[in-house]
Structures are given as structure tokens and as C-alpha cells.
């Protein structure tokens, strides 16, 4: 692992924690609705620009912005675009167990 990659790992974690803090501040301390909406729109862009975009936080901001169409676009892109990175190791997932009573109905 190179020195630059060692430096970038903590920076990415710092970015995510700073964005999380900014989201909490925007939601809890900013009383002006228009300013809060501007901040949430900026946060959506920042979450999108991360090396590993935080789609959950992005959607949460969009929900507070009352923008269901944008949430739908994010979810649609997640379902259709194939990502080269993943946070789950599918090899560690347990197979889904269907109870015998339900198997007869399937």
C-alpha cells in the first residue's frame, strides 16, 4: 500500500464524518428553511462526489427536500448500474431458508 493511499483512507473517513456532522447541523440548528434546503442540496452533491457515494445519506437529504423524483432516480440508478465496488461480501451471506410450510405455496 502506497503512502498516498494510506493518507487517503483517513481523509475519506473524515469527509464522511464531516458530511454527517454538516447534515446534523443543517437539520437541528438551521432554522431558515430556504438556507437549510440550499445546504441539503450542497450535501447531496458532496455525497455523490465521494469515492464511494453515500446513497443512503443522499436519499435522506432528498427526502427532506421533498424531492421524490430525485430519490427515485438515485434508486433506479442503483438498481441498473453495475458498480465495481461493493461493501458486502456475498460469499459470506447465508442462503435464504424458506420454511417447509411456505415451500408448498411457492
Description:
It is a single chain. The chain has 106 residues and is mostly helical. The chain has one domain. It contains five helices and no strands. The chain has helices at residues 3-28, 33-48, 55-64, 68-80, 100-103.
Descriptors for this entry?
106 residues, single chain, 65% helix, flat, disordered N terminus, mainly alpha, disordered C terminus, 5 helices
Percentage of residues in helical conformation = 55-70%
Q: Total strand count, please? A: 0
Structural domains: how many? 1
Overall pLDDT metric: 76
Distance between the termini: 49 Å
Please describe the biggest sheet, giving its number of strands, its sense, and whether it closes into a barrel.
Answer: none
Are there runs of 5+ residues with pLDDT below 50, and where? 1-9, 87-94, 102-106
The coarse silhouette is: flat
Number of helices: 5
Order of helices and strands: HHHHH
Could you tell me the radius of gyration in angstroms? 19 Å
Percent in strands: under 5%
* SS-derived structural category: mainly alpha
